[in-house]
Every structure is written in structure tokens, then in C-alpha cells.
Hints:
globular
Amino acid sequence: MKNQVKKRNHEVTRAYLQQWMTNETSPGLNWLDLTGLHKAGGTPIASFELARQKRRKMRASADFAVQGFLYVPLLNGKRNDSLEDELAKYESQMMRLCRAKTLQEIEAIGTKPIELGIVGCLTHAARDAYNWLGLHDGLATRIVMRHGAPAAFKPTVHKQLIRNARLLFDQYRKLVPHWEWTVFCNVSTPLLVSERPCFDMRFRAGQTENFIMMPLSPRSILIGHPAKDDRGSIEMIDLKNTKHSLGERMNAMTIERARQWIVGSSGLQLNDILERFTHDEFSKRVSTDSKIGIAIGPRND
């Protein structure tokens, strides 16, 4: 039987988001829908996605992170899901890294799988629908449409987006072995996550710092920077019983970057940040957006 084309593409890995599941009243995910803020007078909508039992485990579908055919372009009249398959390989190793609780568990993964897992993390710097749609529809003005909007891409545009994504991901594969990576665990503040969870600070206009960071779970963060001797490494630092503000700084960056949705560890945590999502404040942040993301070079084919 021929495999079905993968129509439902998660812009952020579903298994990754399931780490934010809560059991406050019922198992599921607490999230804010920010898409209404792109309209005049719009407001964020606090939402809860109820998890369902699958294979004896409670799982959330994370439907709010789904975009139809986002990574599956039309090529010669047929859908091509090779990029979606490639991302799945990265994501499986990424989740091993996200779930590791000790340095020994990380090292047991193996050097090459660790590198692939980190690449899986880094792909989340520029694979969200807002970023992709903005590359050809006007980032600061377009109202992001859900579930099927990418299917309306012109084939030539969609093909170019896929091509640029592959170029960027190839850059990440080459970068990872030459950077120093640190996993900070037991972060004191529960972390937020949005449709753009990985922060590649090299993309920011006027940014002089050269590092990449991403929450691995609600209580752990991955941070990388170029190795001084060009030899990569990975370590883990336990922040338990350590006074720090790493979680607060990470959450502030997540709030600044969120454009479609944001997930928290509890409804209370999301309620506490609602004041940061007034229409005026959100519009100011959107006005600073620029078309960078995966538009990394001119065509040469």
C-alpha cells in the first residue's frame, strides 16, 4: 500500500510540545492563540487542548501548531514530502536530547545522533508558518491563516522556500560539530514556548552576539556558541539550588518573538503574561519584523 502524503505538518515538533502537558484539571496543553492580534482591536484567546489516550498514554495533538502541506510542495503536479521525512529524522534524535536528564544520558546517545538532535533543534529557528508565509506575503501586514494556507503557495514559490530551508539546514549541519553546546537543567522558572522556539541570534539586526538558544523542555535550555579551538563539545550544567535569571530572560525572548501562539506550563502562567499581549504592544513588536528567516541567498540554479 502506497504511503499517504503527509498533509498535517507540525511547525514545531508535536512530541516536543507534549512536554508542556499539564494535569491541572485534565491532561492537555495550555496555549494562547495570538492570530487575532494581527487584526485591529484583536485580543489573544486563552485556550486548552485536551489530550487523548493513545497507546496507553495521554497525548496532545497540538493542532494549533499544524499547517497543511507546509513542507510538502507540489512538484510536477504531485506532493513531495521528502523535506518532511528529513525533518522527522532530525526530530527523533532531538527528542532523545530533550528527554535526557543527565550528562551520562546525553553521552549515551552518541556523537552523531547528538549532532543530528541539535540540528533538529536549530531547524526550529526558521520553519514556522509565519516566517514562511511572510517571505512572500508581507510579514508585518498579512493575517496568518491556518490549516491549508501553505497549500495555496504557487509551486515555484513553495519550491524556493523548500530549497532555501535545505540550504539553511545544511549550514546548521556544518556548524554543529564546531560549536560548544551546554544543556542547562533544573531551570527555576517554567519556560514558555512559541512557534519559533529556537533563537538564532545571528539573524537579529544589529546583533553582535554569536549564539543560539532554545528550551529543550519546560525546565531545560540548550545554548551554543562557536568553540574557541573549533572543536565542538556538549556539557550539562545543573542549576538546581543556584540563583539565576536564565529562565526569566528566555521567557522574555519568547514573548518578544511569539506571533501565532504561545504555550505555557499552566493556565496561570499564561494569565500572568496577558498584559504583554495587548494589541498595541503586539503591533509594535510585529512592526520590527524583517524578512530574514530562511531567505539566505539568491537563486543560483
